């Protein structure tokens, strides 16, 4: 299954995306770094085995993207994210996880992670995800959204369900939410619905406010759970 990506408000990119890889498993680091280093526009500038080393990389290597495991010794990924948020410039963090999305992944998204991927993601999807994250986009592996939903569920989802929540939106907002759930960027949504970029940005903000979703990743999860993508 193909991961979904959302890119908005993109700025000029430098020629090479600088990436850090942090995982306490040496084989996992080596595998990810080898895949990324095979892409001509990606450069792995450092690796780490815990959250402290992730912070060191972010402070010294001018990272564009940080691939971060969450469950590590000494300082875990969540504590690292809390400290990364204090930096003048925080790299785009993509969480690497195994087999399932748990409360730690949900917490990472709330702390500012741009998304999450399975560690055994297809190599081409991993490369693409890093490129998108470097441009300010969000990365969502749809194979994990069912697991994640229970951990992300806010009071309104527990109370009346995603479908009922989405039904309260206008038809236009549901159209926009469906496209967000499909990983479309604001520019792509604007083109498909024949709207201006600024109008789409306003609609997305309205959706987040109306549903209580904290960001586009959680809005995409809501769209999927509500059946908008069926």
Number of distinct beta strands: 7
The first-level CATH class of the largest domain is given as: Alpha Beta
- How many structural domains does the protein architecture include? 2
Mean pLDDT value:
82
What is the helix content? 40-55%
Unreliable stretches (pLDDT < 50, length at least 5) are 7-12, 155-160
Percent range for β-strand residues:
5-15%
* Biggest sheet: strand arrangement: 1-7-6-5-4-2-3
Order of helices and strands: EEHEHEHEHEHEHHHHHHH
CATH topology type of the largest domain: Rossmann fold
Keywords: DNA-binding, Phosphoprotein
Domain Response regulatory: 18-134
Protein name: DNA-binding response regulator, NarL/FixJ family, contains REC and HTH domains
GO biological process, one term: phosphorelay signal transduction system
Description:
This is DNA-binding response regulator, NarL/FixJ family, contains REC and HTH domains. Residues 162-227 form the HTH luxR-type domain. InterPro entries: CheY-like_superfamily, NreC/VraR/RcsB-like_REC, Sig_transdc_resp-reg_C-effctor, Sig_transdc_resp-reg_receiver, Tscrpt_reg_LuxR_C, WalR-like. It is a single chain. The chain contains twelve helices and seven strands. It has helices spanning 26-37, 51-60, 77-84, 103-110, 123-134, 145-152, 155-160, 162-167, 171-181, 186-193, 197-211, 216-225; strands spanning 4-6, 17-22, 42-48, 65-69, 92-97, 115-118, 138-140. Strand 2, helix 1 and strand 3 form a beta-alpha-beta unit. The longest helix is centred in the C-terminal third of the chain and has 15 residues, at 197-211.
């Amino acid at each position: 299954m193909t991961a979904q990506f959302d890119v908005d408000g993109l700025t000029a990119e430098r020629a090479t995306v600088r990436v850090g890889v942090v995982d306490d498993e040496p084989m996992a680091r080596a595998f990810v770094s080898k895949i990324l280093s095979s892409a001509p526009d990606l450069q792995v500038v450092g690796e780490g085995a815990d959250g402290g080393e992730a912070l060191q990389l972010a402070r010294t290597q001018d990272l564009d993207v940080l691939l971060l495991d969450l469950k590590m010794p000494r300082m875990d990924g969540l504590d690292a994210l809390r400290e990364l948020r204090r930096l003048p410039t925080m790299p785009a963090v993509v969480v690497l996880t195994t087999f399932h999305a748990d409360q730690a992944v949900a917490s990472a998204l709330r702390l500012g992670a741009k998304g999450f991927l399975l560690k055994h993601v297809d190599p081409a999807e991993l490369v693409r995800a890093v490129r998108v994250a470097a441009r300010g986009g969000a990365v969502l592996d749809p194979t994990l959204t069912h697991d994640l939903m229970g951990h992300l569920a806010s009071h309104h989802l527990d109370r009346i369900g995603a479908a009922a929540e989405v039904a309260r939106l206008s038809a236009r907002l549901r159209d926009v939410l469906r496209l967000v759930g499909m990983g479309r960027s604001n520019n792509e949504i604007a083109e498909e619905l024949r709207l201006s970029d600024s109008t789409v940005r306003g609609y997305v903000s309205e959706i987040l406010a109306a549903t209580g979703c904290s960001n586009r990743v959680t809005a995409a999860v809501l769209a999927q759970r509500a059946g908008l993508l069926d």
